[in-house]
Amino acid sequence: MIKVMVIDDHPIVLEGLKNLLSSRDDMMLAGCFGTGKAGLKAIKELEPNVVLLDINLPDISGADICRQLRRQDKETRIITLSIHNERPVIRNILQAGANGYVLKNSVGEEIITAIHTTLDGRPYLCRKTQEIMSQVGEGDLVEIPQVTRREKEIMELVSKGMTTGQVAAQLFISTHTVESHRKNLIEKFDAASMTAVIKLATRYGLI
Amino acid sequence: MIKVMVIDDHPIVLEGLKNLLSSRDDMMLAGCFGTGKAGLKAIKELEPNVVLLDINLPDISGADICRQLRRQDKETRIITLSIHNERPVIRNILQAGANGYVLKNSVGEEIITAIHTTLDGRPYLCRKTQEIMSQVGEGDLVEIPQVTRREKEIMELVSKGMTTGQVAAQLFISTHTVESHRKNLIEKFDAASMTAVIKLATRYGLI
DNA sequence: AATAAAATCACGGATTCCGGGGATATCCCC
DNA sequence: GGGGATATCCCCGGAATCCGTGATTTTATT
Predict the structure, then answer these.
(1) How confident is the model at residue B11 (pLDDT cuts 50, 70, 90)?
(2) How far in angstroms lies nucleotide C27's C1' from the CA of residue B167?
(3) Is the pLDDT score of B68 beyond 50?
(4) B156 falls in which pLDDT band (50, 70, 90)?
(5) B203 inside 8 A of chain A by CB
(6) What is the pLDDT of residues A122-142, one digit of tens each?
(7) Is the model's pLDDT at B140 over the cut of 60?
């Protein structure tokens, strides 16, 4: 019996996956969680064979969750779910230690296949994802930078249109500090300006 | 026999819809097009009963296509397809004259239901969309501004991180002109800065 | 305990952005 | 033909941003 855990903050997706799993008699649902924190804790306790993980959770990024699990040298297979079909996003999560990537508009069958394939020790990408990854070209060298909690916070406020001064006031820190973070972000994203950073971050689902 | 036309620039989606329609004997495919321009022309000639329209086409925005069709007082039902599940996007396209809105991660059944419902003269929103639209709150008063071709161009270049001067050089226009466009965009989006504009535009699928 | 990473603060100068004006030419639709 | 939308161009001043360079403190991780 395969123990499957689901971590996703969308109730509808959760519901759908529940139904999918309960229709199979070789799998069982080992828990449903809506946040990364709760999910991580539960994985340690319940030790599921497979985790279906939404990579856009409110608290922790999917990549971070993967890294934390891999650091503990877990055998748990991680199949990531996402609506994002951009190369850098996919590669980023795979590099972080995910075993599979399935777009949310895939059919249930693909998820079942993904579970079996990853348990066999092979990675699994859904149809559409395979297509995307097999195309050579443009966005090839783009890496998704690792942003810190604070930097993410800064990006979110800046993307709302707040100026450096306003962000500083909101976070009770100096404008100089905010400027430092902005500079670091521009450098990390290898962007020409904060505007470009915001576009990339939005597109990659970081904010 | 219901004549259904599909306008979508994603071959995979096109393929899926083709299969879906060919499996029904009360519907027929009245043409497949990958651009708004080709689609609009074809609608005038073929006069389909229903158009399945991706709202993010490379050349013309989905909302513009709806408006153009509605201006001609066509009876054609328009069912829009999209991956975007944001309130403003949905409301915008419905206001432009669409009869239905179906998220791309919906099942084929929903599309069939959408076709029948809209032909009965009623609007149709897919399950998820209904949920989103029935939630009251936050993004309620947000309208998606109507941007011109030129403004869109400016947004795209700015979002790449180009400065006003660089954009002007690229487009062979004066920096003053670029500044005017930026100002107009900020005003149209009711944003505090260009950064916020880019975020909104990215999120709404405008760029 | 030691090293690394993240977060904090600081200065100065060149450049850019934003908001407030105004002006002209073109195209499309009624 | 007139009105409206679009695209183009111009000016100015105050504010904010970007970039280089540097440093301190807090917080993990080993």
Answers:
(1) low
(2) 25
(3) yes
(4) confident
(5) yes
(6) 889 988 788 777 765 544 455
(7) no
Plot region of A142 (φ>0 → left; ψ -120 to 50 → alpha; else → beta): beta
Residue B174, class by beta-carbon neighbours within 10 Å (0-12 exposed, 13-18 middle, 19+ buried)? exposed
What pLDDT score was predicted for residue B138?
46
CA–CA separation, A178 vs B124, rounded Å? 46
Is the pLDDT at A119 greater than 90? The verdict is yes
CA–CA separation, B35 and B7 (whole Å): 7
Residue B192 corresponds to which tokens in the numbers above? Answer: 């505090």
Q: Shortest CB distance from B198 goes to which of A128, A163, A198?
A: A198
Which of A138, A152, A198, A204 to substitute to test the interface with B, most B CBs within 10 Å? A198
CB B118 within 8 A of CB B162: no
Interface residues for strand C (CB within 7 Å) are A 146, 148-151, 171, 173-174, 176-177, 179-181, 193; B 71, 158, 163-165, 179-180, 182-183, 186-187, 192-195
Residues from chain A that touch B194, judged by Cβ atoms under 8 A, are 195
* Nearest-angstrom CA–CA distance, B174 and B169: 8
Give me the amino acid identity at B158. Answer: V
In chain B the domains, ranked by start, together with CATH numbers, are 2-134 (3.40.50.2300), 149-203 (1.10.10.10)
- A77: nearest Cα among A53, A46, A54: A53
Confidence of residue A199 (pLDDT cuts 50, 70, 90): confident
Token pair for B46: 């073929």
Side-chain-side CA neighbours of residue B142 (13 Å): 18
**What pLDDT sits at residue B15?**
66
A-B CB pairs within 8 A amount to 60
